[in-house]
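Issue 218. Parser rejects a valid record. Input:
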Amino acid sequence: MEVKVKVTRNYQVTIPVEVREFLGIRVGSYIRFVIDPSMGRVYIEKAVTERKRLRLGRKLDPSEIDEIIERGIAKCMK
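Output the parser choked on:
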């Protein structure tokens, strides 16, 4: 698939809907450009920078939060 866009005078472009849907880009998403000088190409990817959220449907007390943090740290240290 090929999609053309016009560059504005501020060097901005609008990401076409086909590309947004394909990459799963929405408002607040980050994208990154990967430059391949050997092929003379630039690739666009959705950047994974979003943090995972814990939704329990209830408020956590500080001891539960500390326990979750400790488990996360232990998991990262493996």
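Fixed in the parser; the record now loads. The longest helix spans residues 62-77.
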